[in-house]
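Problem 12. The chain below contains 199 residues. Write out its predicted structure in token notation.
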Amino acid sequence: MMRMSAVRSARVVVGLACLVALAALGASRGHAASEPEAWAALRGGGHVALIRHANAPGFDDPPGFTIGACDTQRNLDSVGRAQATRIGDLFRANGITTARVVSSQWCRCLGTASLMALGAVEELPALNSFFGKPERREPQTATLQAWLAGQDLSRPTILVTHQVNITALAGVATSSGEVVVVRLDETGAVALIGTIETE
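Solution.
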């Protein structure tokens, strides 16, 4: 009886923790700018668009994953390729015809970045996924933040990366292809401006 009571108590604590986390996420999005304001911020410079790669069915990567070998990775499907093209069209429809485009070295990110057709694609290891390697979360996020602090953001800048990286840097969860607009505040910390759904 005592053991069952302890199990129930533990479940209640876990449930409350989940509710608090979801409430915090909802609050952060609740104070975010509208989509038109987020687009205006990107056009105005000083801001960065973080994009989770377009649709790539599956979970994590297969055993034997190798950077540079797309046949060992989870990749964009036809839905994801079409989505990536639409993301580029959406940027152009909102006045951003060219941008600096920087990507994770994972093929599903490079494919998304390329199909957007907004500029030459640069690879940046700091955007690579650390899914399944939680020990890399803090040092890699710090490296990315330091990299951002050293960039000229006067023109639209797009970083194509992964769910875990965006959550670590900006504190929000994203769907495939979603755009998260951020800026660096006066202390160099990342501040969320708003999110843009692309589906």
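Discussion. Helices lie at 2-30, 35-44, 78-93, 107-116, 137-149, 163-170. Students who got a different answer should revisit the alignment rule from Section 12.3.
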